Amino acid sequence: MSNIQQLERRLERERQARKAAEAIAEEKTRAIYEANVSLQQLNNRLEELVEQRTAELAAARDEAVRASKAKSDFLASMSHELRTPLNAIIGYSEILLDESEDQVQPQVRPDLEKIRGAGRHLLGLINDILDLSKIEAGKMDLFLETFDVAALLDDVQATVRPLMAENGNTFALHRETQLGMLRSDQTKVRQILLNLVSNAAKFTKDGQITLAARRTRLGAGYGVEFEVSDRGIGMTPEQLSRLFQPFSQADASTTRKYGGTGLGLAITRHFCRILGGDVTVASEFGEGSTFNVIVPDNDSNAAIAAPQPVWEQRVVGTVLVVEDGREGAKSLAEPLTQEGYRVIAAAAGADGLRLAREQKPDAIILDVVNPEFDGWTILRLLKTDAELCDIPVILVTVLGDRDMGFALGAAEHLTKPINPKELLRLLARVQRPEITPDVLIVDDDQSTRGMLRRMLVKEGWRVREAANGAEGLEQLARAVPAVMLLDLIMPEVDGFEVLRAVRQTAAWRDIPVVIVTSKDLSRDELEWLRGHAMDVFQKGAYSRAELIAAVRAMVDAARLASSRTVPTDRGEGKDVA
Amino acid sequence: MKGIVFTEFLEMVEREFSPEIADRLLVGTELASCGIYTSVGTYDHAEMIVLVSRLSRETGIDSHDLMMAFGEYLFRRFKILYPKYFERMNSSFAFLTRIEDYIHVEVHKLYPEAELPTFTYDVPQPGRLVLTYQSTRPFASLAEGLIRGCLAHFGEDADIQVEDLSDGAGTAARFVITQRDTLRE
Known about the structure:
- The structure holds two protein chains of two kinds.
- By secondary structure, chain A is α/β, with parallel strands linked by helices.
- Chain A has helices at 2-102, 109-136, 149-166, 186-202, 237-241, 252-258, 264-274, 326-339, 349-359, 375-384, 402-407, 420-431, 446-458, 469-478, 495-504, 523-532, 544-563; strands at residues 145-148, 170-175, 181-184, 208-218, 221-229, 278-284, 288-296, 317-322, 341-346, 363-367, 393-397, 412-415, 438-442, 462-466, 483-486, 513-517, 535-538.
- In chain A, strands 2-4-5-7-6 form a five-stranded mixed β-sheet, covered by helices on one side. A five-stranded parallel β-sheet of chain A has the order 9-8-10-11-12, with helices on both faces. Chain A has a five-stranded parallel β-sheet with strand order 14-13-15-16-17, sandwiched between helices.
- In chain A, a hairpin with a 2-residue loop joins strand 4 (208-218) and strand 5.
- In chain A, helix 8 (326-339) packs across helix 12 (420-431), helix 9 (349-359) packs parallel to helix 10 (375-384) and helix 12 (420-431) packs across helix 17.
- Chain A is elongated, with a radius of gyration of 37 Å.
- The longest helix of chain B is centred in the middle third of the chain and has 19 residues, at 63-81.
- By secondary structure, chain B is an alpha+beta fold.
- The interface between A and B is medium-sized, with 12 and 14 residues.
């Protein structure tokens, strides 16, 4: 009995224990569930937090991008705002300098030169600072193109020549005959060379600055090595070590004595490196300095290749060349036939007159250099013959004969040796002398318009003006100009829109457009403009002469194009070349 | 005190003595739990002291000896119930020196409210371990039994010197464990 009671007690205890265990299990389960819930909430909260932080970070990034864009926009608009009035200052001072030659005010010349010099210096400074800020922001775009190195060197030589006179220096250009083509950023290579040469000129007095260029192997490819050397003041090793740092010249006294910002060499080195090359310097104090620049050729297939001129064979007009010797006739005829002219040659005055009557050429080129050959008589006869007197005659003269030639009725003159480009330009000009070229200036800045007008009118061109893009389009609709000078940043209809409209309208499509802008152009913009305009001039970054030359070339090209529509079925002649 | 100590104790009494004795321990005692224990529950440690002293009266065996015997029994049970804690333990010293930083840490994860004793140790020389027990409860004898159970589990022969650090209260003691091999040297 007690055994059963004991078992019953034990069973009861086990039952109670089981219930207690179940209650604990239930409690634990609930606790686990609640823990899970709070974990879940924590997790959700974490996700929320992460989302919130992500949003904050995105906002911060957007803000940084906006700030960076605002800075870029500020720089771009600042460059535009600063360059526009500077352009007017430099341009007007050039005009005044030009006019002071003719007028009796020689005392103002030095002042005008100071204004122009200061304007150019300030412009250089602005451009340097913009370049440097672009480099530092990693926004310096590369514009790769394939260009003729020899032509670039000629261009550099022409630009630096006036600088040489200032310190009584001379300039020598040494180049290999086979420099060939280079694929790189032409504008930057040009700026590198101009920086180094103008630097050398600044620190050298009564010495020689040498620019040498040679094609060189670079690893598996090729490149061009440029060397700019001078016998100027030179540098100490300590000065050399600071040389390429921005805002640092050899020392502070250098800045006082020689001027400059100390940005040129820093930019030069950045440019060299952006192009994949580098610049190095060797210098001895008091002895002079030599800068060596390597620019790799980005055309991997480029071996040493000469430029291949390409021209189409078409007849655009007939030219009679009256020349004493066959060699001379050939040198005149070659560029003409390449350009599509039919060339007939006469070796004697009588032949010349006969052929002129028979062939009725569009122009006659007459050599009066050789005194044995009586060119003057032929000119007189041509101009007194009612049938022939309208045919324009271009004289090949020595300088002193120029006035006599014009007095006898020659249209233009050339001196030997003949520059083929000049020959073609004159030929185009004389063929349509009755048309006064008409240039349309579209620019919202009045002083810029006024300045351009004065430059162009001086050249004998007619000028129309439009103060914005919309007016520009109206002017185009009224009459098609020979050339249009177009600003880019203008209210309402900007230059890009005008250019787009011009290229999309059949009647306007062939108008040569020259962009004259103070806008800091991006690579994409520059690329687009190069595809749609004939030339791009950054305001202030060119000389008056360069702009005039470009406009003249386009006016002449337009003449040439219209002359090509003239029928050329004028019978047989004696072809040379 | 965790319920498992009580359930294991009663099973030991049933097995080593008799179910009748186990029943008498529970019936004749005024226990807050009414003698109903589940291994997952928690109970007043004073009930264990009451149970041990009643067993001592029932059997005529000294409470200290009973408690120590229970410790040895409990260690064997731990090996069966919690084999996880024995993984990679290849000696008694390895096991005893990990009580504080491993076993008690794991126990706390499952029973955050558990009040555990502390075991600090020192190895004054190779083959000797000085383990100091410190608790709010008087279970130094149980600790000694567990140590002996541990040595037995690893098949080791060692001498244990016990020094009471609590004036006979049994809440603190120092165990100097010296392996026999070391003694002979």
